[in-house]
């Protein structure tokens, strides 16, 4: 492709609304353009990368015996209501009515649809195991789209679904998909880490996330350097040792202290000259509509996934200020467990070990010191309800851990019979008895892969695409198209590489060398072929590696063979 004929609208400056590297470089490099918040157009360079990622996915899925389908993006709500997820997803669902007044929705995922498809078309155990996958556009009404294509309302996803006769069959299918995912992410050039995860709204038992460590990530993972334990912070267990009798403090008299206008742990800690670990914060939640108070040590962060799972509820959200005032008789910022009304209290395990701690007084501008469980308030419900920290030991071996920001690029689930039972995906076994298909679910964020690769493969000049998914493996930079010999050699190189099946972008623009080099580095083409006047006279070109900067002089007659070795074409 000739650059002069290409639609590659590069920009010199970062877009004002871009927060992360991938967003900046995808806009500046002419890969995407925003239509509205959370919705992007993919331009020719972006499409080329997307198609290469899709090809890798298809190759690895097909090798494992999966079969590709394409299911509708428009769904009837009735099937979602049968599984209960119509209510669970709530405002995430994008709904509309057709001309007949019938309600429809845009698919955020396809568990219900694929299960219905199999339920109506697969009848015998002889047709199982079966793994179906698709690469499809999904739609979710994201409350806060951000980071370019990292979190959007419209995105491309690969989702696969396995159907087996029993749990043993599911184990085999799950391993196939797990191995395929490792291959896919490796081929895409991603430094991924598989971690134990929470199934969330998908349901089921076992779940793994495939995470790419990056400061741009919205998720956090725990990694142990000793035993290689890895997990999402949503599920990583916090182990709290019981306090010995000898370590308990002498119980002191409870007392109220004035804290005028001071509502945060940090400010109260500073005023009273105590560490946050000597304080207890009381968070008021609505759990499926019921009010619950969650107690945490002041320096710990609530893990809402753990709270949700402990309470066995579908919806969990922090209570509004009116609800807080109703149960505490005080404004937000002064909540505590002492004297709280008609409210279930649950406490993190670390709170069980605390003596003479500080809490809100349920009174404006006041806190209480020397609070003790049993004497001043009651709770018999203790659990692991907090986020793990770098100061906690590894849940598996007790050694030190790292907590890293990460981007989720894939997620696998052992669904069991959650969907197949409700939607009637049943087959007859070899004895003619009806059995429920056992399911697995496997998702990859296709568009998110692009952003993740850029976050982990870029430098001050632009993107560093791996050859496997680069829009073009090679760019020819003709330093002066007005020079007859430079043009002649550049055209000869372009013709030779094109005939050899090498994907090449020929920068034939009448631009300065500086502009051409900057644009080539910005869009991240792995190999540059530089044609200058001095070398062109000797039928020589320079071949430069974008990432390492290594330069090699190559004769024109040898250029095809040389590039075929470099690109694997």
Architecture overview:
The protein has 569 residues and is of the alpha+beta class. The protein has three domains: 18-235 and 403-454, Bira Bifunctional Protein, Domain 2 (BirA Bifunctional Protein, domain 2, 2-Layer Sandwich), CATH 3.30.930; 245-383, YbaK protein, CATH 3.90.960; 474-567, Anticodon-binding domain (Rossmann fold, 3-Layer(aba) Sandwich). Helix content is 27%, strand content 28%. Strands 3, 7, 8, 9, 10, 11, 12, 21 and 24 form a nine-stranded mixed sheet that branches. It has a five-stranded mixed sheet with strand order 16-14-15-17-20. A five-stranded mixed sheet has the order 28-27-29-30-31, sandwiched between helices. Strand 14 and strand 15 (290-297) form a beta hairpin. Helix 2 crosses helix 12. The radius of gyration is 29 Å and the shape is globular. The relative contact order is 0.14. The mean pLDDT is 94.
Structural key phrases:
five-stranded mixed β-sheet, globular, alpha+beta, Rossmann fold, 569 residues, 16 helices, YbaK protein, BirA Bifunctional Protein, domain 2
